[in-house]
Amino acid sequence: PSPSPSPSPSPSPSPSPSPSPTP
């Protein structure tokens, strides 16, 4: 029996910090 290939973990996109509006 052929070994099943393990699924490669997909890198989760890091959330980009939203710039706070300066008053």
Notable characteristics:
little secondary structure, 23 residues
Give a short overview.
This protein is low in regular secondary structure and 23 residues long. The chain contains no helices and no strands.
Question: What is the topology?
Answer:
Blueprint (H helix, E strand, L loop, with lengths): L23
Q: How is this structure best described in words?
A:
The protein is largely without helices or strands and about 25 residues long.
Extended strand count: 0
Number of helices: 0
Which overall shape is indicated by the principal axes computed on the Cα atoms?
rod-shaped
Portion in beta strands: under 5%
**Secondary-structure-derived class:** little secondary structure
Into which percent range does the helicity of residues fall?
under 10%
CA gyration radius, whole angstroms = 20 Å
Euclidean distance between termini CA atoms: 66 Å
Low-confidence stretches: none
The averaged pLDDT comes out at 77
